[in-house]
Amino acid sequence: MKFKLFYELKRKIRERENGFSLPDFIIKKSRSIEKFFVVLVILSALAAPFVTINYDLTVYLPDSALSKEGLDRMEEEFGYPGTGRIMIEDVTLYEAKAIKDRLEKVDGVDQILWMDSQTNVFSADSFIDFDSIDEYYKDNSAVMDVVFEEGDTDKKTSRAIDEMQEILGDRGCFVGMAIQNKSLQENVTSEMKLILTLSVTIIFLILCIATTSWFEPALYLIVMGAAIVINKGTNIFLGEISFLTNSVSAVLQLACSMDYSIFLSHAFEREKKKGLSQTEALANAINEALNSIFASSLTTIVGFLVLCFMKFSIGFDMGIVLAKGIVISLLTVVFFMPAMILRMSSLIEKTSHRSFLPSFEGLSRRIYRSRKIVLIAAALIAIPAYTAQSMNSFMYGNDAVGAGEGTKVYEDEQKITEKFGRSNMMMAIVPAGDPIDEKEFTDEVKALPYTKSVTSMAGSLPEGVPEEFLPKSLTEQLHKGGYSRILIYVRSKGESPLAYRCSDEIQALMKKHYPENSWLVGSTPSTQDIETTITEDYKRVNVLSLAGVFLVVMWSFRSLIIPVIIMIPIEAAIFVNMAVPYIAGDTMIFIGYIIVSCIQLGATVDYAILTANNYLECRKEAEKKEAAIMALNRGIPAILTSGSILTVAGYIVYHVSTVAAIADLGHLIGRGALISMVFVCAMMPAFLVMFDSILMQNEFERIRNTIQLHRKRRRERLGRIAARIKGDSSCTPKQQEKSGKKKKSRRRSVRE
User: Fold this and answer.
1) Global pTM?
2) Less CB within 10 Å around the terminal CB: N or C of the chain?
3) What local confidence, expressed as pLDDT, does residue 614 receive?
4) Alpha helix stretches (DSSP H) within 106-176
C-alpha cells in the first residue's frame, strides 16, 4: 500500500540521517534485551499479588450519584458495614436464641437482628403465636439478618463468616453481599487458574495446526506469557482493579495479541526462504512485521481506551488494563521475541512439520459467487437484529455479578427464599436531633406493605427512656456525628421492579421528613444509580468507539470509503451477537453489553482490515474478481487462527466460571468473535468488488485536487471581478452610468 511505502521510505531516510536502525539495535542487544525482560517478568510476578482486587460495583459510581454520597457519609460516620442473612436448620426457639447469642460474640459481627427483641422465646409453646413469627422461625428453622462491623469485602468480615460457618456446620445456610463477595473471591481465584490452563492447552493445539513447527506454538506462548505477567505486575501502579478486569484481562490479552507473534514469525520464515542469513532475515522481518503489528494493535487499543470515557469508572479500570496489556504485548513481540527466535531457531527447524491447513481457494470462490445472496441475507438479518439488541432485558447491580448455579451460595439462597422469602436491607442516613420526627418516619416505613422490619433509635427506645441512659457503644450504632442510621428490611430482591418501587417510596417518605442531607443507601438505591449512569455511558462509548476505529483505519489507508466497508460487517456482527440473548429470552448484564461492544469492534476489526489490505495488494496483479478470491484465500487461515483463539478463550470462560458477570462476558466475546469471522469472510469480498473503482483511486489526492481546483476557479473569478471594477473606474461618468444600467438590466432579466 502507498502509505506503507511512504513510511518505509521515511524510516530509511531517518535511519541514514541518525545512523540508527531499530532491527540492528534489537539483534545486537538481543542478550541484554532478553535479560531485561526476564528481570521484568520476575519483578512483575512478585508485584502482582499486591494488587488489590475490588468486588463492589458501587465503588465505581460517580461522586455525583446520591447513593454514592450517602455511602461516603455513612462510611465517614458509621463505617460501611457488610451484611448477610443466615438460616439455622433443625433448631428449637430456645436453641436458636442460644446460637444467636453465640454468633453475636464472633469478632467482626456488629449485630444480629431476629424476633427475640419482640418475642419471649423462653415462654412455653402454648404462649407463642407461631403464625406471627413465621418470618423468623418456621418448620424448625430460624432466619436472622447479620450486620458486620466492617465492609462486605473486608478480611475481618471474611474471618467472621468462616467462624460462623464453623459454629453452625451443616445446619447453616448463608446468603447476602458479604457471603456473596467471599464466595466470589474464592471461586474466581480457583476458576481463573482452570480457565488459563484450559485456554493455553487448546490455544496450543490450534497453533500446532496453524503453524509448521511443533515448537513454534510454545515460543508464542512463552512470549505472550511474559507479556501477561508484566501487565499483571504493572497493575500495582493502579493500586486496585475490579474483579471483572482481573478475571478477563489475561485471557483477552492472550487471545487479542497472539497475532503479533504470528506476524513476526511468518515474516522471518519468508525472509529465510529468500536465502538470507539468520540476522538479515530477522532484521527484514522486524521491518516488515512492525507496520502490520502496529496497525493491528492500534484499533484494539483504541477500542479498549474508549472504555475510559465511562462515568461508571469500572470502564476506566478495564480500559487502562486491557489497553496497557496490548501495548506491552506489542513491545514484548518487537523486542523480546527476536531474542527468543535467535536462541531457539534451531529447535524450531528441528521440530518442523507440514502444514495441516487445507487450501481455501475453493471456499473463497464459492463465497465470491454467492456474494449478492450474502449481502441480501446479511441485510435481512442485521436490520431486525439491530432492533432486537436494543430490547434486551438487563441487570445492572451487585446482584448481577453474584455466584451462579452450582455454587453453595446459590443453593443456600434457594433454600432460604423457598422457606422465608426474600430480605433486602436499605439504610436511611438522616440528620439526628428530633426523636419525634424520627419515630414518625419509622412508623410510616413500618406501615408499608412490603416492609419486614425497621430498626431506629427512636423506634427502639421505650417511651420515656432517654437515649443517654443507654451505653454509648450501643447508641453509636444508630446515632453518631449528628446523623441517624435507620436499618430497613423489605421483602424483595436487591434488583427488581418491586425493589425499585420500595426504594422510591421509602425515599419519598424520607425526603418528606428530611428534605436536606438525607440519603437512602443499600444494594437497590446503588443499583438504580448504576443503571442511570451506565445507560448514559453506553451512548457515549458506542459513538466514541466507532469514531476512534474509523479515524484509525482512515489514517492507515488514507481513505474514507475503506473504514466504512470495514466497519459494516463488524457492526452487523455486533448487532447479531447482542440480539441472541433477546431471542433466547436471557437477561444480560449491562456492563458486559457495553464492554463487549468495544472489545468485539476493536479486536475483530483486524479481520476486515487484513482482507482489505490483501485485496489492495492482489489488485496490483489481478482483476477485481480474482483479487477478491485471492485476498480471501490468503486471509482465511489468519482469520481462522485468530478468531478461533478468541472464540475458544471466550467459551472456556463461559463454561468454567460460575460467576454470572464473568461467564456472560466470556459468552459474548466467544460468540462475537465467531460471528465476526463469518460476517467478514462472507461480506468483505462483495463490498470490495462493489467499491473497486473508488478503492483503486487515491481519495485523499482526488479531494485535494478538487479543493485546489475550486480555489483556482475562485481566484480567477475574483480576478475578473477586480478587473471589471478597475475598468469601470477608468471610464467617464456617462460611461459608468451606461454600464450600471446594463448591469441592472441583466440582473432584472435573470430574475424574470
Assistant:
1) 0.79
2) C
3) 84
4) 155-168
